[in-house]
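Hello forum,

I keep getting stuck at the same step: I have a sequence, I want structure tokens, and every attempt I make locally crashes halfway through. Rather than fight my setup again tonight, could one of you with a working pipeline run this one for me? It's a single chain of 265 residues.
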Amino acid sequence: MLETAIRAAREAGRVLLEGSRGEIRVERLAQRDVKLAMDRKAEEVILGILSEKFPGHAILSEECGAVPPKLARRSGRRKGASDYLWVIDPLDGTVNYSRRIPLWGTSVALLHQGREIVGVIFDPVRGELYHAEEGQGAFLNGKRIRVSERARLSAAMIAFGFSSREEQLRRGLSAAAQLPMAASKVRGLGSAVLHLAYVACGRMDGFFEFGIHQWDIAAGTVLIREAGGKVTTRALPDGSLDLACSNGRIHEELLKQMCSKESVS
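Reply #2:
Ran it on my machine without issues. Output:
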């Protein structure tokens, strides 16, 4: 399963990297978001690999939503009847990609009965492939990685992301406004999967976002846990999530800082 996830992420990343060198075609443009033809193209690559190798598994993708198991579609079984769910984001950091800002990546994760067990994040620009499997550790290009050892928020670098939806954007702005006074440095790269990968390998010490989606964080959740960090989420009524993740040492401080008026658990 891990090998298939790595293959899918690499193939999608290759397609995206090649596409970034030519014309970038916009399919839909919104105030805070953009959809590209390359999103769909990368998704097709991943779906093809996963459904061919594991036809009995369900898939959840940012672009096309829930995809029932291939075998279920053939036999007429109950839609989505599988203990395994692949959760993918073919292109995270689409706005960056559309503006030729080299901060974006591909995310492929596998859940078993709702728990993340495999996670792969691929950054084709830097040639960095992050992978983790439950109980086996986390790796960057084959070398073991660990979260940072910073023990205080005042010495930490914290990443943040903003939802495209106004309500969650306001919450994120309120929390982010307090961080420069509490943390050493704050950063917003425009790609949740890279934020998560960077926390896992110790480049950053924590990351938070309000109203994030499962496909943005599933692979990174495995990476951070296997690298020794901590992930906290809260489900929202619209199906999105509040997320806080860190090296574990600053986790309680980060939660208090970002959720002084409301909590995630």
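The domain at 153-258 is CATH 3.40.190.80 (D-Maltodextrin-Binding Protein; domain 2). If your local run keeps crashing, start a new thread with the error log.
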